[in-house]
Amino acid sequence: MALLYLLLLLLHRYALVWATLFENIQDVPPTEYDFVVIGGGPGGCVAANRLSENVNFKVLLLEAGPSNTGILPMEIPLLSPQIPSRYEWNSTTIPQPGANNRTLAFPHAFVLGGSTSHNGMTYNRGPKDDWDRYARLTDDQGWSWEGIQTFIAKNERWTPPADGHNASGQFDPSIHSTSGITSVTVEGFPLPTDPFGLKASKELGGIFSFNLDYNSGHPLGFSWAQFTIGHGTRDSAATSYLAPKFLQRQNLHVLVNARVSRLLQTSSYSDAPEFLRVEFAHDINGPLFNVSATKEVILSAGSINTPQILLNSGIGDSKVLSSVGIPPLVHNPSVGQNLSVHPVVQLVWTVNSSFQTNDEIFQNQTFQDLLVKEWTETSQGPLVNGAVGTQRIYFRFNDTVLASFGEKDPSAGPTSPHAILLIQPGLFSSTGPSTGKFLSILVIMHTPTSRGSITINSTAPHFFAPPVIDGGILKSQFDLLALREAIKTALTFMSASAWDEYIVGPIPDLAAAIQSDDALDQYIRNSASYSEHVVSTASMTANNADYGVVDPDLLVKGVTGLRIVDASILPLVPAGQTQVPVYILAERASSLVKERWG
Ligand SMILES: *[C@@H]1O[C@H](CO)[C@@H](O)[C@H](O)[C@H]1NC(C)=O
Ligand SMILES: *[C@@H]1O[C@H](CO)[C@@H](O)[C@H](O)[C@H]1NC(C)=O
Ligand SMILES: *[C@@H]1O[C@H](CO)[C@@H](O)[C@H](O)[C@H]1NC(C)=O
Ligand SMILES: *[C@@H]1O[C@H](CO)[C@@H](O)[C@H](O)[C@H]1NC(C)=O
Ligand SMILES: *[C@@H]1O[C@H](CO)[C@@H](O)[C@H](O)[C@H]1NC(C)=O
Ligand SMILES: *[C@@H]1O[C@H](CO)[C@@H](O)[C@H](O)[C@H]1NC(C)=O
Ligand SMILES: *[C@@H]1O[C@H](CO)[C@@H](O)[C@H](O)[C@H]1NC(C)=O
Ligand SMILES: *[C@@H]1O[C@H](CO)[C@@H](O)[C@H](O)[C@H]1NC(C)=O
Ligand SMILES: *[C@@H]1O[C@H](CO)[C@@H](O)[C@H](O)[C@H]1NC(C)=O
């Protein structure tokens, strides 16, 4: 009898675990939802988790891509460059004049967890001054550095490094939380570049001086990287906020392969229409389904798909909407405009063959297989680190350099870096030459003044045509000059005698580029690409601002019952990686929603 009871209990638990993640709308039990969340990235996963903490709220999360489970390179941190393109939207921009008319990839993930399932996993809250500027721009102290501290703590769960080494001296434990949801850690296997990087930082000092923890609000200097990794495995929004213990909640349903086409108007109040019905399909050729929310729709489709869905729904610039045959329902010319993204350039040096790099892992499949075996059996070894290096330098240009640009400093204040250097022993891509050892630096410019846009030029089929993306790369002279200067800073760092033994010299492309400013500018225009740090296409502004898409509570202006919870609401790109700011803003947004309806 007891055994039967146990068996029934197990079956019941099993059924619950599997009952809440669905592949097909036909399998979802008929339910009246309080909230429908669109998009399973860091915004949507946080909202779905936090709202379903209230057992009285029934929550549905719709994700366009498939489930994230069982995809090895999505679990093994260092193998993220090998994640198949099946889990990508494959977006590209229109020709970019600032990049010699190249059309550029605009990466974003098509899988549960969104871009946290395939990104570089950097844990960076952003500088104090950037948050304080958000507070000023929105007239809401809740967005200040002070205001977000509780939400940082709710998100972060500090975790010891995979190899169990004593990480004292690599971060400041006093500013980290161990009670949140997403795992955070430092390097879990030493890299061959570690001693050289530290020596170069000591040798040069100044802007390269050691900073114990870039997450203190004061990121400037040379630091150890922190990653959203736990026990050697990527911890994405899906693996953390939708972990099995949360998916067991009976009031939370997650539907994958559900691509949202648009929101449907559910009332005709002309001052602020309601859009509580969500239209979606499992296939771009249809058929279309719809589901409605009784309280709110939370749009968390990311900086590219969020404005696309708004425009498809008739929320945007009336002229543009009419030109593609969409009846304009809410006129707002800010939708999709003012896109802000960090441009990136990669620099490569050849490494002395007596030393190690990560290149062999991608050049020698037998070697990689051995390391995968080690990772699978022990959660240890070289694969536990992120693929963007474990040491980095956040830095500012001094006043002399800034004055030479002839423009006002676009940074948020003295704690905000203009750029970052990511140092990686190896190439940043999985497709490099079949032999050779390299050191790469990714130079990411953090304070771009160029702006781009997301718009639509077609409604077929079923509104699923790719949006028209103009990333605006290097449109402004400031961005070009700043990237040029940031590259020079990288060259200065690599000129430290600490590197003499390890580095042979720049590869030919780079050697040619650094001969003159003109050559360097051409190198930048020919090789610059986009980071995944895209924001501001549905900008948050003060209640009384004459532009912007959402108010400081992230409610869409001129609409009832629609909130946006993703990177698109950040009014300017933060001077740092964007995944953690999204976790933070989603935690705060979830609190606001719970206060409103609790
Ligand atoms: C991206 O391209 C891959 C490879 O062609 C494909 O399998 C995948 O379906 C594409 N992604 C989307 C969202 O269409
Ligand atoms: C880019 O395209 C524009 C418009 O076609 C053209 O005027 C310009 O010369 C092109 N730039 C380069 C570098 O080819
Ligand atoms: C880790 O190292 C620090 C500094 O060297 C030391 O004070 C601390 O006791 C060590 N912790 C453990 C658990 O060994
Ligand atoms: C919503 O779906 C139902 C069927 O589930 C359909 O009858 C109805 O027409 C749809 N509503 C809209 C506005 O498309
Ligand atoms: C873009 O942002 C600027 C402020 O940075 C604002 O003045 C302008 O109105 C915005 N444009 C749109 C279309 O929202
Ligand atoms: C590839 O790796 C295996 C395992 O470490 C090693 O035995 C073999 O020599 C390597 N091959 C080359 C070409 O380096
Ligand atoms: C400012 O930075 C530049 C470039 O790194 C450097 O050459 C110059 O000496 C610095 N000036 C001052 C006043 O620190
Ligand atoms: C507009 O849409 C059409 C068809 O969907 C596409 O072929 C074309 O390239 C698009 N135009 C731009 C500027 O992206
Ligand atoms: C490469 O490293 C070895 C071992 O440290 C050293 O003897 C040699 O001089 C280095 N080669 C170069 C070109 O620096």
From TrEMBL:
**Where would I find the Glucose-methanol-choline oxidoreductase N-terminal domain in this sequence?**
302-316
The answer, when asked if Flavoprotein is one of the entry's keywords, is: yes
**Domain of life according to the entry:** Eukaryota
Residue spans making up a coiled coil are none
| Gene Ontology molecular function terms on file | flavin adenine dinucleotide binding; oxidoreductase activity, acting on CH-OH group of donors
Q: Which cofactor does it need?
A: FAD
What Gene3D superfamilies is this protein classified in? FAD/NAD(P)-binding domain (3.50.50.60), Glucose Oxidase, domain 3 (3.30.560.10)
The entry's FAD-binding residues are 111, 260
- InterPro entries membership: FAD/NAD-bd_sf, GMC_OxRdtase, GMC_OxRdtase_N, GMC_OxRtase_C
Keywords, alphabetical: FAD, Flavoprotein, Signal
Q: Has keyword Flavoprotein?
A: yes
Q: Hey, what's the signal peptide range on this chain? A: 1-19
| Family listed | Belongs to the GMC oxidoreductase family.
Protein name as it appears in the record: Glucose-methanol-choline oxidoreductase N-terminal domain-containing protein
Species for this entry: Collybiopsis confluens
